[in-house]
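User: Earlier you gave me the apo prediction for this protein. Now I'd like the version with pyridoxal-5'-phosphate bound, so I can compare the two side by side. Same sequence as before, with the ligand SMILES added.
Assistant: Got it. Here's the input I'm using:
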Amino acid sequence: MPGFELFGDKERKELNDVLENGVLMRYGFDGMRNGHWKAKELESELETVLEVKHAQLVSSGTAAVSVALASAGIGAGDEVIMPSFTFVASFEAIMMLGAIPVLVDIDDTLTMDPQAVKAAITSKTKAVMPVHMCGSMANLEALQAICKKHNLILIEDSSQATGATYKGKPLGSIGDLGCLSLDFVKIITAGEGGAVLTNNEAYYRHADHYSDHGHDHVGKDRGAETHPFLGYNFRISELHAAVGLAQLRRLDEFVTIQKKNYTILREALSEIPEVTFRTVPEGGEESYSFLSFFLPDLETARKASSAFKDHGVDACFHYYDNNWHYIRKWEHLKELKSLYPISNEVKEGLKYLQTKTFDQSDHYIARNISCLIKLSWTEAEVKARAEKMVKAITAVL
Ligand SMILES: *Cc1c(COP(=O)(O)O)cnc(C)c1O
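And here is the structure of the complex with pyridoxal-5'-phosphate:
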């Protein structure tokens, strides 16, 4: 990760197909497009690769989460359980619909703790949204059991773990709905883009219409289509879909490269007794997009993180001090800094953030470092990097 490191002829070829006829929109203009339907083609290939009945492309991963929630009928006042460690998109998408994000602790998988989910369920809870962070997954079997028992919708955010599997199934295909991002820094990129995945016919139809102003897409003239319900514009363009198509066809190649690089780094760090690794749930196979490990305490992790920088080891993240991924630095959420008025229901629903502590999440995130695995490294570069990492960690222990 990211796929853009290997942008090349295949991506250019797909893009050129679109540029030759100039139809940059995914719907309509049938006569002008010389048979090129990149978004439709990408959806069909995503369905095959990710083993779902339906994939609906949208304009971003954040849009995918919003569209997935809307498709399942989640809206004003509904509570959606999400993890404390994720990307800001999780609560943005929930709040866009007037729903309430209920943040819960993560465990040593670096994803949502099923026990914390159980404790957070109320009469308003509608959905549970695990986020498969840094290439590995939440315990989906435990979460599925909870959702079944309490009649909740399970929505997987697999934006950072495309290519990973759980008990033989691709992430994103296991919950009622799955979301993925094709933004510029993800394992397969379209520049910008995302997809909603589902086996549920109604959710798919909702996602298809909702992401295009509520258009029913019945195959008549676009101007004559009706609007069974309200929607927005979350469409992907043909240009983005074309790049995504070339990249999806390289997913296996990318995962193989990641696994190779990951394994070299992991074997080197395994020599240090103080280093432990994140837990991968039984039956899980990572996408190897990150190598995530724990150091003994916060101070050591901070020192290691800065020693990495001194040694030129880039792309390693200590999320405890990071603005994007962890509740600790989300002042804009905790203080509800909104440009426009927020409903009293959501304000009330978010009051818990003033007092709730996330001690269990802190316990893991404070000690965690996650290193991005790049696709463009040569073997010599990975080996040199492994050596530098071992040296940097050993020096601060
Ligand atoms: C990147 C990301 C998103 C949002 O994707 P965009 O395409 O950037 O909007 C959502 N969730 C997670 C976990 C992500 O990493």
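For your comparison, keep in mind: The domain at 3-250 is CATH 3.40.640.10 (Aspartate Aminotransferase; domain 2).
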